[in-house]
Amino acid sequence: MIEIDGRQLEQESLWGITQRLVAFDTVSTNSSLEAARFVANELDLPGWTVRLHEEQALGASKGSVVAVAGPPEPGGFILSGHLDVVPFESQPGWTRDALTLARDDQRIYGRGVSDMKAFVAQCIVVAKALEPSRLQAPVALVFTSDEEVGCLGSGRLVDHLPSLFGSSPVPRHAVIGEPTSFRVYGAHKGHVRCAIRIEGSAGHSSRPDLGLSAILAAAEAVRVIERFAEARGRQATEEHWQLFPDFPGIPFNIGTIVGGSAVNMIAERCELTLGFRPRPGDDPHELLAMVAGEIRSSVEEKYPGAMVKLDNVQVTPPMHPAPESLVADVLRELSLEAVFLGAPFATDGGNFERAGIRSYIWGPG
């Protein structure tokens, strides 16, 4: 049972709502609109103002939900989660229907149970139990889309938040229910991703002097990234060590390399994907410009005629540590943590900062 103000809430209610949410196929490339409509309908409660934000993105209809209860006074806080999930088709390890909630003695199964549809369901159950007339400051629920592909949904949503909150001020603090096993994170790294496309000159492998291998040029780009990561990615301040003791630097990763057409052909094109995770205080755009400049300089010097282009750049900003607040005090009491570390992954919290919302990452799973 879940208990609020001495009242016990039925677990089956939580199970049923989670079951409905898991059944929606909200992989980020698909529509999340029906799931958002379901959430908005569940939150259509006395004392709550619910707004559904619809848009088109990634080739599909997307929906985000903002629900507010309580007086239109400064203060209060937001509980936030996302409705989209990562893909499950053709992924090894699945022995059950990913869209059917199931359980055994030890685990609950279903795509997005931990990240983070069970948390969204918990928020709905709590909303149903709250008495808005007793609130002294607003309580808000904000559920986004397209978080799993770079927090794109919250990046689009933040500029609409003042109008979606209406007469109620946007709260200054949020708790984002990412699965942390109820460990609190007070900051996090961002994520920058891009495609690096290298063009050479095609030809037959019997005459390498007549062509320019884009794959060899890409190999030089990899070496540049490796040197850059060693020189700059491991630099860290005292604050970085305090927030990210496991790895205080900037992780760089080359995720994919694709190029060439046949073993007897000189590759005309090659593409690699680069990702790195800037910390609070780092300038993501400056770092990207620096590493791209070094790649271009080195590749074009070693392989005259090669062309280096950056494409599909996406920047998820880091989240800076929030100042002390009542929300932080409550989370310390609940989690028994005196100091909040930084999370190595990105969340919607980095985008929420643009709206003046400072976030904490804390959730089940």
Notes on the structure:
There is one protein chain. The protein is α/β, with parallel strands linked by helices and 365 residues long. 30% of the residues lie in helices and 26% in strands. It contains 10 helices and 18 strands. Helix 6 (214-233) packs across helix 8 (284-302).
Quick structural overview:
The protein is an alpha/beta fold and 365 residues long. 30% of the residues lie in helices and 26% in strands. The mean pLDDT is 94.
Write the layout of secondary structure elements.
Elements: E1 2-4, E2 7-9, H1 11-23, H2 33-42, E3 48-57, E4 60-69, E5 77-82, E6 102-103, E7 108-109, H3 113-129, E8 139-144, H4 152-157, H5 161-165, E9 173-176, E10 185-188, E11 191-199, E12 203-204, H6 214-233, H7 238-243, E13 252-259, E14 265-266, E15 269-276, H8 284-302, E16 307-316, H9 326-335, E17 341-343, H10 349-352, E18 358-361
Parallel strand pairs: 5-8, 5-9, 9-18, 10-17
Antiparallel strand pairs: 1-2, 3-4, 4-8, 6-7, 11-15, 11-16, 12-14, 13-15
Helix pairs in contact: 1-3, 6-8
Radius of gyration over all CA atoms, rounded: 23 Å
User: How much strand content do the residues show?
Assistant: 25-35%
* Total beta-strand segments: 18
What count of helical segments does DSSP give?
10
Q: Oligomer, anyone?
A: single chain
Reading the helices and strands in chain order gives EEHHEEEEEHEHHEEEEHHEEEHEHEHE
Structural class: alpha/beta
How much helix is in the residues?
A: 25-40%
Biggest sheet: strand arrangement: 3-4-8-5-9-18
Q: State mean pLDDT (0 to 100 scale).
A: 94
Inertia-based shape: globular
- Runs in which pLDDT lies below 50 for 5 or more consecutive residues are none
Largest sheet: 6 strands, mixed
Termini separation comes to 17 Å
